[in-house]
Specification:
- It is built from 8 helices and 5 strands.
- The protein is of the alpha/beta class and 190 residues long.
């Protein structure tokens, strides 16, 4: 069992690299945003509440996020030959990272987790986000996302660094070079 998490500032290229990894490994991808939007379409209390949070741009409470991750992780754990999981940009809070550690230990997956930080500078992130020109990529929104990364996600990276298994990849290289480095650290070419 292999668990990969690609973590990085907005604009670091997580989605592109996850697409490459999924194609090469066949691993299940857990995209929190997709799970939240799917649940928000349901006409129950939690679905409505998630919809409210999403429409207001609020950060989802960690227990809600976990309630959506757990069925996927249990389904993977129950499969006859689980091969791997790719987390898209998660964990994004220290609390989530610590909860995942407990789940991985419970499932017997310790030592199988590879958090990969696609490292790009704040200036490079701003440049890329402004260049791609999505509707939510205005200067104020970009500043908020990058500030949030500093306050919430950097402690996650520090947590994994202190544990000795954070993998850092230079995300400012070409897309192909970034993927080549990811494959090398994951030993996917062996």
């Amino acid at each position: 069992m292999t668990i990969i998490s690609l973590i990085g500032r907005s604009g670091c290229g997580k989605g592109t690299q996850i697409d490459f990894l999924k194609k090469d490994t066949g691993f299940e991808v857990i995209k929190t945003g997709s799970l939240l939007r799917q649940k928000a379409s349901e006409d129950d209390f939690l679905g409505k509440k998630i919809g409210e949070f999403l429409s207001q741009g609020r950060i989802m409470p960690t227990p809600v996020v976990f309630s959506l991750w757990m069925p996927k992780l249990i389904e993977i754990r129950n499969s006859s030959s689980p091969s791997g999981v790719i987390f898209d940009g998660n964990p994004r809070k220290l609390y989530e990272a610590k909860m995942l550690e407990e789940v991985f230990e419970m499932f017997g997956w310790q030592g199988s987790f590879f958090p990969i930080h696609l490292k790009i500078s704040r200036e490079e992130a701003e440049r890329r986000l402004l260049e791609r020109g999505r509707e939510d990529d205005n200067s104020e929104e970009i500043k908020n996302r990058l500030d949030w990364f500093e306050t919430e996600v950097v402690p996650v990276l520090q947590f994994y660094k202190e544990k000795g298994y954070l993998i850092e990849v230079n995300g400012e290289q070409s897309i192909e070079e970034v993927y080549k480095d990811i494959k090398k650290v994951l030993k996917l070419d062996d």
